[in-house]
Design a protein that fits this description.
- The chain is 36% helix and 26% strand.
- It has 461 residues and is of the alpha/beta class.
- It has two domains: 149 residues, Alpha-D-Glucose-1,6-Bisphosphate, Chain A, domain 4, CATH 3.30.530; 296 residues, NAD(P)-binding Rossmann-like Domain (Rossmann fold), CATH 3.40.50.720.
- It has a seven-stranded antiparallel sheet.
- A hairpin with a 2-residue loop joins strand 16 and strand 17.
- The radius of gyration is 23 Å and the shape is globular.
């Protein structure tokens, strides 16, 4: 029976490494971002009897996989075995070993067997081995890096953090990351909680917020709002975007300002659209606002948090760039044309794209919460922006595909109107001045490394 093993050194004690795996959010952080996985059931944690059921899209196929945890040994190991799924047999042992007081070893050992016996092994052994190597390289890298980021604040108490937009692309990764570090996360819901529940509630469309749900909360991260890039900016859609971003932020800020024993910090997601189309001019947090619809919305959006700042809450306006994630946003939409050899730059290809990897967004939001020296605007972008042409060339290189088919500007305008002009044909060379001065370390300062990590494609030897 084939066996796959992966061993890595980790920068924390064996007890902390084991605890990280046992906390809520671990599976979210460990699942490969290039896979389309839907969790159907997750009960019982990693102890014996814990159960995980999921659906995995593999091209036109949809695979159901059910695993159950067995052989749990506190602080040492836990195992999962396939109950239903694509393998004839699957047993995965996670083992943790001490390597000194503040170091440990993570060992993953998978015993697997394909259907159809020897014939199945001959046809699928190589592909399965490659799949396991990709998956466990990602798992060990993300585990180590998450632990390093939490270890940087090991001397600080764990916090209670409320998050709006917790089910979104950024929110789901942020909440999983925070829970992995031992923080308590309260997901702000639009459903009225039951009597006596501490679940924060708000309904921005109705102008309702249950302020008492934020009592005892140390920090709030506000990510909720209408998707700016979801479609053409019709007058109705522009009003919906403005209202959700501006009025929603004001409603939340006023509620937090009224809470006794409430949060000490509010991090509000803004956007680099604040700077407008600036060509190749480098802009930092010290630069003035630009022109255009999105710049106007961003200014009002950030100003809407003023009631919280006036109440003594430390407010940070996180101006987020183009987020690269295998799970959502722009990157998955680009893969099909590029894989077909039909990818290329947008418009002239000279406009600047200020991008940022999803793990650096998550890490930076955590850093802004934990670092008391930050207030006001902070650019969440990678330190090395690229032009549209450079982005296309790099993505083509990673996918081993040509990137020479441009998307003309007139086609962008015809298809997307004003939204396409501002988001796709405009750009700004945004610099993360305050993050760098404040000591934040980017995991992915280079575009190629970020793309390879999210797509599970290793660097060439």
């Amino acid at each position: 029976m084939p066996v796959f093993e992966k061993t890595s050194a980790m920068p924390v004690s064996a007890a902390e490494l084991f605890a990280w795996h046992a906390r809520p959010g671990a599976f979210q952080r460990l699942r490969p971002p290039w896979e389309r996985i839907r969790v159907l059931e997750q009960t019982g944690g990693i102890r014996d009897g814990g159960r995980l059921a999921m659906e995995i899209d593999k091209g036109p196929l949809r695979l159901r996989w059910v695993a159950q945890h067995v052989d749990y040994q506190e602080g040492v190991r836990f195992c999962d075995e396939q109950v239903e799924g694509p393998f004839a047999r699957w047993r995965h042992e996670h083992r943790v070993e001490p390597d000194g007081e503040q170091r440990s070893i993570l060992r993953d050992r998978v015993q697997w067997e394909l259907p159809l016996g020897k014939a199945g092994e001959m046809m699928g052994k190589g592909a399965t081995q490659t799949m396991l190597e990709r998956m466990f390289h990602h798992r060990h890298e993300r585990t180590r890096r998450d632990l390093e980021r939490h270890q940087a604040f090991a001397d600080r108490p764990r916090l209670t953090i409320a998050v709006t937009g917790a089910s979104g692309m950024i929110g789901s990764e942020l909440t999983a990351f925070l829970e992995g570090g031992g923080h308590q996360v309260r997901r702000v819901t639009r459903r009225r909680p039951e009597a006596g529940s501490s679940q924060p509630y708000w309904n921005p469309e109705a102008g309702e917020v249950a302020a008492e749900g934020f009592r005892g909360v140390d920090a709030v991260v506000h990510l909720a709002g209408e998707n700016i890039a979801a479609g053409r900016w019709t007058p109705e859609r522009k009003e919906a975007i403005r209202k959700s971003r501006v009025e929603g932020t004001r409603l939340l800020a006023e509620a937090l300002a009224s809470v006794s024993s409430g949060p000490k910090v509010l991090v509000v997601a803004s956007a680099i659209g604040y700077y407008g189309d600036r060509g190749d001019e480098p802009v930092s947090e010290d630069s003035p606002a630009g022109e255009g619809y999105l710049a106007e919305v961003c200014q009002a959006w950030e100003a809407a948090a003023l009631p919280a700042a006036q109440a003594g809450i430390r407010v940070v306006n996180a101006r987020i760039g183009v987020v690269l994630s295998g799970q959502g946003g722009a990157l998955p939409k680009l893969l099909t044309p590029f894989k077909l050899g039909a990818g290329g730059p947008v418009g002239t290809g000279r406009q600047v794209m200020s991008w940022v990897a999803i793990d650096d967004v998550v890490g930076a939001l955590h850093y802004l919460i934990m670092s008391e020296g930050f207030a006001g605007p902070v650019n969440l972008v990678a330190p090395r922006p690229v032009t549209s042409r450079e982005f296309a060339r790099t993505l083509g290189k990673v996918l081993h595909r040509p990137a020479i088919v441009p998307l003309p500007g007139f086609a962008v305008k015809a298809a997307f109107g004003e939204m396409g002009e501002e988001l796709l044909l405009g750009g700004a060379r945004v610099i993360p001045k305050r993050l760098r001065e404040g000591g934040f370390r980017f995991l992915y300062p280079e575009l190629e490394a970020a793309l390879r990590a999210e797509l599970g494609l290793p660097s060439p030897a």
